[in-house]
């Protein structure tokens, strides 16, 4: 019977092409608007590291005091003194410090001009904590951190530019006038949002080119290529003075596998801040935070407000389209009241009437889904009109979005058809036969 009802539905679509076109266009436009905005919202609000987001935490320690903070919250990063104190305490299974660096790749081979390379100075645990995949080689070890080795991991894209994609581990790379040894080539890895560096980026920057040893970057006195936030009078004139200042520029991350470990580390942070107060370095009570990845993304308001607004507006527009579709379906179904009366008089049940007209509505939804998919494909390519380029690039038409488009179009149309189908199923056969 379903195949028969589907055949009736297709015939009905051809019976009144003008009314059918209006319904299909209403569904198509509504679905397309929703799917375009959803593709952006999905990209910017997803979990960037779903397997470990509940085990990765970023600690914050108030090094400025209540007069300099924003609404009582500690700074989003740490200064050198506090960051190194946490690192040396080794209170977590894994821990890393990082900050952005910008260097020039010196000419070599067939290249006559240097290249710009953006990346991070990190400690050895960075690669294991964040599950960085490797195409060639690996990251360095803790002993290389201690030895302040001139090791570097480069991206696959940079490896392609410099070495044609070949295995470059063991080769020498000139960065900023210094030689570094390539120990690994990372596969494509650029979690969106870039949760581990929301202090210096919006979370949607291009993939980093290099990762270098944190201590080596300090030895070379490499200033941060990202944000550097200071409070009070700035009096330092040397690198050591900068390190001892209250300027924050280092992002810490720790890996904690259980609630007990999280509780212990939070106590450690509170004790550390209390010790700094007793030592006279802090003139305020301990003020610390320990947030996991999802909490950190929420705190940093990573999801652009315009994406939320656009999604709400699009859903409202889709709702209006569905209301119009309800009216059009009601008009379409009730014009066939005589036909319904005859079917009911011949023994058709109300359930059969429901099924027939809901299947017919499903065919309208399917046609609307096809049209909506075409509009979505066009709209996804033009989201840069409303959003920043780095966010617009994230919107893409993949198989999941194609499937969701059809599911939403068909399901929404069927739901919209319930009231018109109910009216059709409750047509009184006697009245229709008498009037006929």
From TrEMBL:
The chain crosses the membrane at residues 20-41, 309-331, 364-387, 399-422. Residues 312-429 form the ABC3 transporter permease C-terminal domain. GO terms for molecular function: transmembrane transporter activity. It comes from the Bacteria. It is found in: Cell membrane. It holds the Pfam family FtsX. InterPro entries: ABC3_permease_C, MacB_PCD, Macrolide_Exporter_MacB. This is Peptide ABC transporter permease. It comes from Rhodanobacter thiooxydans.
């Amino acid at each position: 019977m379903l195949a028969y009802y589907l055949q009736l539905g297709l015939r009905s679509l051809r019976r009144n092409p003008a009314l059918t076109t209006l319904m299909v266009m209403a569904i198509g436009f509504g679905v397309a608007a929703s799917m375009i905005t959803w593709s952006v919202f999905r990209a910017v609000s997803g979990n960037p590291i779903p397997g470990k987001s509940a085990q990765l935490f970023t600690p914050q320690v108030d090094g400025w005091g209540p007069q300099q903070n924003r609404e009582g919250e500690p700074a989003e990063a740490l200064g050198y003194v506090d960051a190194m104190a946490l690192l040396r305490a080794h209170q977590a299974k894994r821990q890393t410090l990082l900050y952005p660096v910008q260097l020039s790749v010196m000419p070599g081979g067939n290249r006559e001009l240097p290249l710009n390379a953006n990346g991070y100075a990190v400690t050895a645990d960075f690669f294991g904590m964040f599950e960085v995949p490797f195409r060639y080689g690996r990251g360095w070890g803790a002993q290389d951190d201690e030895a302040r080795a001139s090791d570097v991991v480069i991206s696959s894209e940079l490896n392609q530019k410099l070495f044609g994609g070949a295995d470059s581990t063991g080769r020498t790379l000139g960065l900023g006038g210094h030689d570094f040894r390539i120990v690994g080539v990372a596969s494509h890895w650029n979690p969106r949002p870039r949760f581990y560096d929301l202090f210096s980026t919006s979370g949607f920057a291009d993939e980093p080119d290099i990762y270098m040893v944190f201590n080596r970057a300090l030895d070379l006195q490499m200033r941060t290529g990202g944000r550097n936030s200071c409070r009070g009078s700035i009096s330092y004139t040397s690198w050591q003075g900068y390190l001892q200042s209250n300027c924050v520029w280092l992002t810490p991350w720790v890996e904690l596998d259980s609630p007990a470990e999280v509780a212990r580390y939070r106590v450690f942070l509170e004790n550390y801040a209390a010790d700094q107060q007793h030592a006279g370095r802090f003139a305020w009570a301990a003020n610390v935070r320990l947030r996991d990845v999802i909490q950190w993304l929420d705190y940093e308001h990573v999801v652009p407000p315009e994406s939320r607004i656009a999604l709400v507006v699009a859903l409202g527009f889709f709702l209006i389209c569905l209301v119009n579709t309800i009216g059009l379906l009601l008009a379409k179904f009730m014009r066939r009241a005589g036909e319904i009366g005859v079917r009911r008089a011949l023994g058709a049940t109300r359930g059969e009437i429901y099924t027939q007209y809901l299947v017919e509505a499903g065919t309208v939804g399917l046609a609307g889904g096809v049209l909506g998919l075409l509009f979505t494909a066009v709209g996804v390519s033009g989201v840069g009109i409303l959003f920043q380029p780095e966010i617009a690039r994230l919107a893409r038409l993949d198989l999941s979005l194609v499937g969701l488009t059809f599911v939403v179009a068909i399901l929404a149309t069927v739901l919209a058809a319930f009231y018109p189908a109910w009216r059709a199923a409750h047509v009184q056969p006697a009245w229709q036969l008498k009037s006929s």
